[in-house]
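Hey,
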Amino acid sequence: MATFAEKPAISLVMEKDALTAPIAGRIVLLRANVGQKVERGECVCILEAMKMQNEITAPKAGVVKEFRVSKGAIVNKGDVLAVIA
């Protein structure tokens, strides 16, 4: 009899709380920490694309609730990088 692994619960993030990748690339540095307060426009992480490093900034003031990526992760445009609420 075959057994199937249970699918993990999908965590839904409200679009207004999600920090998403504007372009595809690789995460080279996380500049904020979980639980840290950030201001609108403050750099949260650095994404390298086409040999250029791009600062990914907070779209609003809030607290970094979680990171969905780690240093070295390859991301696509639109991927959720962090949750700021």
